[in-house]
Specification:
37% helix; four-stranded antiparallel beta sheet; single chain; alpha/beta; 275 residues
Length: 275
C-alpha cells in the first residue's frame, strides 16, 4: 500500500485527512485535490527525492507479457454453472474464457489496455482448492500483480473511452454478467473490494472522469471502507460514487450488485449512488 493508504488504515481517516497529517509531519503544504507537494520548506527536497524514487519504482515496473500460445492448451468449452448464473457463452468467448479439463479449472486470461496477455487466473471447481488463484501449469506460474491491472479493461476499452466513465466491480464474473446484460458496458474489475492508485491511473489515462464503485455486499461493515475508497479517488481528481444503499434489501450476502439481474442493478445504479 502507499503511505497515504497506510495512514488511512491506521488512523481510520479520509484521504484528505491523511494528506494533511503527512503534510504537517513533513513540514510541507499540499494541494489536497491533486496530492502534489508545494515548495514551502527545507524538507521538500528530501520529500521530492523520496517521491521520485517511489514513482520510478512504480512506473518502471512492467508486468510480464506471456506468450498467447499457452491459451491453445485449453478447450473452448464453457462452464454450465456460469451459464446458469447468467453469463452467455458468446461473452465468455469474447473475453477468452476457456476450460482446463485435467484440473477442472475455468481459465480467465487478463490483458492490458493494448490487449497483451499479462496473466492468467483460474477458477477451481475442485472441492478444497482455493477458488481464485493464478494459473500454474507445467511448472510455469502465470501470476500478475492484481493491484496493477483491471479485468476487462481491454475488452471494454472503446466504451470506457467513449463514455468517460467506468463502473468498478470486484470480480471477473460481474464484468462478464454486465457484458451479457448490456453488451457494451463501461466496466472493469479490480479483483478485490479495493482499488490502487495505479488502477485509477489506468482509467484516468483513458479520460475517465467518473467512477462508480459496484463492490459486493458482505453484510454491512464494508460500507465505511467503500466510503474511504470513494474519498481517496475523489482526492485523485476523479468524481466517484459508490453503490450501497438498499444492498441489504436487494441483495443476498456476498452478492455483486449485478447478480440479481438488470432491473436490480438499474435500481441500485439510480437510487444508491452516494455522491
Amino acid at each position: 500500500m502507499s503511505l497515504f493508504d497506510l495512514v488511512m488504515h491506521v488512523k481510520d481517516c479520509r484521504f484528505e485527512d491523511a494528506m494533511k497529517f503527512l503534510a504537517d509531519r513533513l513540514g510541507i503544504s499540499c494541494n489536497s485535490r491533486c496530492g502534489f507537494p508545494k515548495r514551502t520548506s527545507s524538507f521538500v527536497k528530501q520529500c521530492q527525492e523520496l517521491s521520485e524514487l517511489t514513482n520510478h519504482r512504480q512506473c518502471s515496473y512492467q508486468p510480464p507479457i506471456y506468450d498467447e500460445a499457452i491459451l491453445n492448451y485449453f478447450e473452448d468449452r464453457y462452464y454450465t454453472g456460469w451459464i446458469d448464473e447468467g453469463i452467455s457463452p458468446d461473452v465468455m468467448k469474447r473475453f477468452g474464457i476457456k476450460w482446463y479439463e485435467y484440473r477442472k479449472h475455468i481459465i480467465i486470461p487478463c490483458r492490458n489496455a493494448q490487449g497483451k496477455l499479462i496473466g492468467i487466473r483460474r477458477r477451481s471447481l475442485v472441492e478444497g482448492e482455493q477458488k481464485y488463484m493464478p494459473l500454474t501449469i507445467e511448472g510455469r506460474d502465470y501470476a500478475f500483480s492484481t493491484g496493477l491491472a483491471l479485468y476487462g479493461l481491454y475488452e471494454n476499452l472503446a466504451t470506457i473511452q467513449h463514455r468517460r466513465e467506468c463502473y468498478l466491480f470486484e470480480g471477473e464474473k460481474s464484468v462478464l454478467k454486465a457484458a451479457t446484460i448490456y453488451g457494451d458496458f463501461p466496466c472493469v474489475a479490480s479483483f478485490s473490494h479495493s482499488v490502487s492508485r495505479q488502477e485509477v491511473s489506468l482509467l484516468a489515462e483513458l479520460g475517465v472522469s467518473k467512477i462508480t464503485l459496484c463492490f459486493d455486499y458482505d453484510g454491512g461493515p464494508e460500507k465505511k471502507i467503500y466510503g474511504l475508497i470513494r474519498d481517496k479517488i475523489i482526492g485523485w481528481g476523479i468524481d466517484c460514487g459508490y453503490m450501497y444503499k438498499d444492498y441489504n434489501i436487494m441483495l443476498d450476502e456476498h452478492d455483486s450488485p449485478i447478480d440479481k439481474g438488470r432491473d436490480t442493478f438499474e435500481y441500485l445504479k439510480k437510487e444508491s449512488r452516494i455522491k
